[in-house]
Write a structure and sequence with these properties.
alpha+beta, Methylamine Dehydrogenase, Chain H, Immunoglobulin-like, seven-stranded mixed β-sheet, globular, binds [4Cu:2S] cluster, binds dinuclear copper ion
Amino acid sequence: MNNSLKRVSALVMGFGIGLGAATNAWSQSSLEEVMKDRGLTQKDLLAAAKTYTPTGGRDEYLAFSSGGQSGQVIVYGIPSMRILKYIGVFTPEPWQGYGFDDESKAVLAQGRIHGKDINFGDTHHPAFSETKGEYNGRYLFINDKANPRLAVIDLHDFETKQIVVNPFMKSEHGGAFVTPNTEYVMEAAQYAAPFEDEFVPLEEFNEKYRGAVTYWKFDDKKGRLDPEMSFTFELPPYSQDLSDAGKGPSMGWGFTNSFCSERYVGGIERGRPPFEAGCSQKDTDFLHVTNWKKAAELVAAGKVKKSKGSYMIPMDQAVKEGLLYLIPEPKSPHGVDVSPDGTHIIVSGKLDSHAWVYSWDKIQKAIKNKKFEGKDPYGIPIIAMKDALHTQVQVGLGPLHTQYDAKKCVVYTSIYVDSMVTKWDYCEGKVLDQLHIHYNIGHLVAMEGDSVSPDGKYLVSLNKLAIDRFNPVGPLHPQNHQLIDISGDKMQLLYDMPLPLGEPHYVVAIKADKLKPAVRYKSGWNSRTDSKSPYKTRAGREKVVRGEDGVVHVYGTVIRSHITPEIIEVEEGETVSIHLTNLERAEDETHGFALYSQNVNLSIEPGKTVSATFKAERAGVFPYYCTEFCSALHLEMQGYLLVKPKGYVAKAGKIQEGTKYTQADYDKQVKTNVDTQAVINSVVGFITSHNYKDFPEVVALVEDATDQLGFAEEAKKKSETFASKGDYQNATLWAGQWWQYQVKTADLGLRAKTFLEEHGAKKVK
Ligand code: CUK
Ligand code: CUA
């Protein structure tokens, strides 16, 4: 191989030399020696074997975790517990350009409240979209407790597409919970507040402060929530908590509990006993039962009035139409979880050691026979506990949430105070097993646990405290998600995963093969609106336009390894809007764009078009560059924004060349290029002699390679034209660019060739 070929090969083959040596070092120690050295037991090894995923391996399930106060969603694999992604939802996330490009800023702006930007969210409950009660892998919803909002994430690209603000609530908690065909997404209020956006004294708490549950209509075709068709039930100020949607026989109904039906208002600084004392006096609170199906019919029939632009069902109308009932539930309840078959509802009270199992059959009978024990102060009928309860089971101190197993009647309840998981049978009403966790568990999640057909297998315990589980990192500890094997009779603790991003509350887990995420966008795509961007720019069509809006629009492109344009000139005081389209088709070829001192930071995945608009307030020189190490010449992926002072007159002359080139330099470069072409031809020969068209990944690489080769051809022509005029300066530089395109072609070609070899491509005649 001659020198230039070696250069190409070294460049394009990447940097993976010397792995063989590492393999030898491993084989020097035996399993026994490693166990002894690290103090591992047979049980540890078994646990490791159940979670360890060799390089390149995939997980069976993907977990989508609330990111707590980070306002994000965390995606990790089960059983490996490897984090795969943070999805920016309510909070800007620089790496993804979320909250930095104009397109995603528009999504965050949907979540403004009274015109104010809110750059965090207290996310609690993620929920998958469902079809017939099964997760369909298309969308994820998540709520923000602090600023009553819901967000829609499209699992096609794992991006946030929509944020809606609840028009009535001032805080929420019981969202997101999805009805079996994603007809609606439930969101229930938490702390009661007036529906109006004005001051109402606490003395009017009972009359003017209200709870609520909103059923957000989901438009499946558009993949967006439809505020116009959503409706809200007015509820008493009982501090509503979690919700769940009915299914099977309870389809069409929703369940929402509450923890302060005492309607107590604290004021410890005024000498009043605090909220915690007043909200835990009664032995029971109320489970709210709402009929969304009938409510939707009333809305469709025009029988529900709108308030603040949204349908609002007042309590008296809900009572009159038979849409709303109350059932006593254990003191200070937390979780309410409907069984997969929709026949039972399990509620746990934080201050009761029992989990309470309600029978839908009994509840329905009481409603049908109008058998009530009375009414609450707002006239809502109360179904007597004995007319609704199936059984009570002593599960431990401080039960919170319940997950259903694949095995019939088997459930797992998180026990906060006792720091354990209790496995029990809700049909028979008996405890089966208990496992200590570390420490103070909140939610827990079983695989596809909220669907009509849970998978069981694994359980993740979301612990509130980590205390001594990890290397200390200061007073703020990571959270601890513990993986538990629930496939056998006895639960087995497998693994601790530290999560250092907010306090996640809930996780949902889906079979990985239900997700079909894209690897690239259609060319020129606005990923936030899911439509073609008006700023889509094709190769060779880059331009700078001073628009009628007075804005300097830069229509640019990025591709290995340059940003076009490389020089942008504007005048001080002008507003600049830079639109960049990533021309790559190859998988994982994302480019970034960072610009000095303008808070501009973009992520441009293959096919995407993103924009950054800012005012160039002051004259100066502003370098920009690509932030992703995308190619060997990544550092050279750079440019200058020149902001000229007003009325600046350019001095005569041109850019001074730093280095001068001669005919000898030109000839040398051309020789390299000719050799390189031979490498390309041999790779092309390999690809085209195989059934590469059967591999979409390779087809995309070949498309990109063909583009790059086309650019090489153009650069070649330019260099030859300059050479023919004896301008060896430009001829050499363009010959260099010709080679750059060849290297990228060869890089793509070799990646395609490797893929074909590794995936058993067949030779074709
Ligand atoms: S909540 Cu946090 S442990 Cu928001 Cu579902 Cu129970
Ligand atoms: Cu593109 Cu670095």
